[in-house]
Amino acid sequence: MAPSWRKSLVIEDSKLNRSLNKKAFETSEFYLEIDKLINSTELNELLQKEGYCLDVKLHPIFLEEGTLFKTNQSNIKILDSKSDFDINEYKLFVTDFSSFMFDFIQNKTKIVFLFPDYDRFVTGNHIYTEFDFDISQLGPKYTKAEELVTFIKEKITAEFTVEPEVAALYEDFYYPAKESSYRATVYKEIITIS
How far is CA 174 from the centre of its chain? Predict the structure, then answer.
């Protein structure tokens, strides 16, 4: 799981240095739902039973106040900046709009979205008012931790299989490199257009 940051929940100076607005963050629906998820005994028991762990990869802005992300659940781990993770180990990726999503698309991993504050998110709570593509084509979107736990409960025994129509989207998501690399391909396309 990789939750992204929210512009409305950070303090940003003129040099674009960012720090978490702890007071606003702790009372946000965004944080409260993530906290419910990472402290869910129901989810933890399910993960234990099925032999899974939920790793939570925090955005660097969140790492400053990493103590806000606490859990005593045995199969839910909060990764720190030194934690390595291999995307090949994961069967499911949970995010709102982390850029890690694009790595998991390339890796053909099942993706679901947890947007506790979706309505606020697309009205500028971050920097977006719309997305470049319809994220619901990639996977379901939930706003409550309980909804996500229900999804996991329903799909975990099938190891979060990617549906054929989503697999087709994954295949077509990236422009294929026609040259030796993407950089060479883009360079050649620019020369052709010029």
Answer: 19
Q: HSE, CB side, 13 Å, CA atoms: give it for residue 88.
A: 0
- Contact at 8 Å (CB) between 28 and 35? no
Query: What backbone torsions phi and psi does residue 114 show, to the nearest 5 degrees?
Result: -115, 110
Residues with Cβ < 8 Å from 14, sequence gap 6 or more? none
Among residues 63, 17, 32, 4, the alpha carbon closest in space to that of 144 is found at 32
Determine the number of helices (DSSP H) and then strands (DSSP E) in the chain.
9, 7
Instruction: Give residue 83's pLDDT band: very low, low, confident or very high (50, 70, 90).
Output: confident
Report d(CA 166, CA 136) in Å as an integer.
10
pTM for the full model?
0.87
> Quick one: pLDDT at residue 163?
95
- For position 121, what pLDDT does the model report? 81
